[in-house]
User: Fold these one by one.
Assistant:
Number 1:
Amino acid sequence: MTTTTASAQSRERTVGKSSPGTARGPRRRPGRIRRIGLPYLLLLPALLLELLVHLVPMVIGIVMSFKELTQFYIRDWTVAPWTGLDNYSLSVDFDAPVGEALLHSFLVTCVFTVLSVGLCWLIGTAAAICMQDAFRGRGLLRAIFLVPYALPVYAAVITWAFMFQHDNGLVNHVLHDQLGLTDKPSFWLIGDNSFVALLVVSVWKGWPFAFLIVMAGLQNIPKELYEAAALDGAGVWQQIRRITLPSLRPVNQVLVLVLFLWTFNDFNTPFVLFGKAAPEAADLISIHIYQSSFVTWNFGAGSAMSVLLLLFLLLVTGVYLFLTSRSSRTPRAAREGKTADV
């Protein structure tokens, strides 16, 4: 009788421990809440930094664009008079000197961005394709190609500024003294040649990034495609056109957008190369806004120009993403239609 009672009690304890509704039920909810809240807790420092570094200054800049914030109100910018849209109307009045100068800077920046992004993509893609096949010394060449991207921007641009010097620069020494391509030493940091100098520096430090991204994208293309194309008699250019470039399309879409945003907003390169006053031929909009804000001490107009630049970049980015997403869906829909017809 005692043995039967003990066994029954032990079975009851076993059933009680294994019952999900009694022992484990209340403990699941706190664990689930902790698992759900952990990602947000980990993202909290990044969100706070994003708020303090980007969003708060952006809001302050937008507020400043509606004020007559000059050097007389630097000590306390909150008491600056409210001007409404006067700073914006002054910036877009292309018949006035301020608007005309801003339009010229915008056009120079557009031409510079198109040339720089195009050359960076072209050189980076060509170098990545040449480095695709294995050969002796490929790793060393890849490391050398990435040196301009690894160097600090200020060190690289200052080196180029010394090389572009008129009297004792390396560029004039090679082009004029050694090769005799010019009649006399050229001025690279002033005048019309300043645009060429700025473009050379931008492409030199930007194409390794395109090379790195395209080289990573080439690793995902199966080699069997090239082997099958070679058996069908396709040459190198046909393989690049029919296999490489279509396969790199998603990578190139992101790469071109990133290069566009970086180049259009580039401030360090012209500032270090030319100083506070860039030549007219190389007056990028970033350095122009800096001059309007910190040289003429008109922070209200400079803030309005910055907001207009932000709106332009948002518009271009939105249109670009819409067109690229639409073009990527069109071939897929065509393939699905052909499959359905079959």
Number 2:
Amino acid sequence: MLVIDEVYHHTALQISSSDLLYLIERLKVKKENEIETLKQKIEQFEQKRRAEEVAYQSLSPVRKWFAGRPASHHQAVEYMVQVKERFRKMEQIRRRIRDLDQIMERIQSANHNRQEEIELSPEIIREIRQLSETEDVQA
């Protein structure tokens, strides 16, 4: 199967459809792992904030006055920016996974129609090339 670059319209890869399906499936797993990692980072950050709040609430009123709030306004804004950025990145990854699902469907229908070409975005081609180098698949 020939993989054609959507932007430059030239042959980017020449790979069997079964190998391409395998690499796309591995790429989907990799993307799902990235989402799980981001979820874990958000949860760790939440746990840290809850622990700081519990520690602050356990202080006497005088010590609270000297210690100050654990999450100042600046820290709260920083926290929201970090969490929002991670959620945005997770949504981008989910969108990429949906794109990969659509590509797999096109490849499988191309096998039935005996077509030998499929167009992919340069980003997906780059990721498939990188993955093929680590997976020892000829691309």
